[in-house]
Predict the 3D structure of the following.
Amino acid sequence: GAGVSQSPRYKVTKRGQDVALRCDPISGHVSLYWYRQALGQGPEFLTYFNYEAQQDKSGLPNDRFSAERPEGSISTLTIQRTEQRDSAMYRCASSPPKIAGANVLTFGAGSRLTVL
Amino acid sequence: RKEVEQDPGPFNVPEGATVAFNCTYSNSASQSFFWYRQDCRKEPKLLMSVYSSGNEDGRFTAQLNRASQYISLLIRDSKLSDSATYLCVVNTASGGSYIPTFGRGTSLIVHP
């Protein structure tokens, strides 16, 4: 697509429910990143993929969080047994093959998660 | 200590002013440095890359000081439309790869 598409844009759920957030990156972008952003803070790294391989998941807060990108395109971030502290904006970004080691990110509009 | 640190501001300046932001990073092995701009309720967007020799894009100048591990952004002749949050981004080494790591952002408000 023309840009990075995320869905849903807004998700309100009750504590204990599972949620799945979807990211459709720019066509041809090799790398896909997930970040979480709290109000007044910068994006906080969660995990990233090159093609379908999860390269780094060191930023996932705990084992309730998981992500996949099975065909190297669309990715899903899943949060199980949601807690109120999971409420945040979840942002996906994609980047083309690195140029001189630099990866320039294009972000989607984000998914705002509210856990009641 | 955070890997990328920025003064959150806000920096409140009149139109036409020159304003500078600094950002420091803790990992000396970091490579690739960027400034992103984030408007209120929007996603971050790349403003400019930062090169070792320094680089300029119109009214914006970015500098990198590897010895002191800081990056700067200078905005000349500020416009009302420059009001936004400016995010410093450093590619930080992590287990064999480099992760774009964001600072918390510096808020700029340009007033008439």
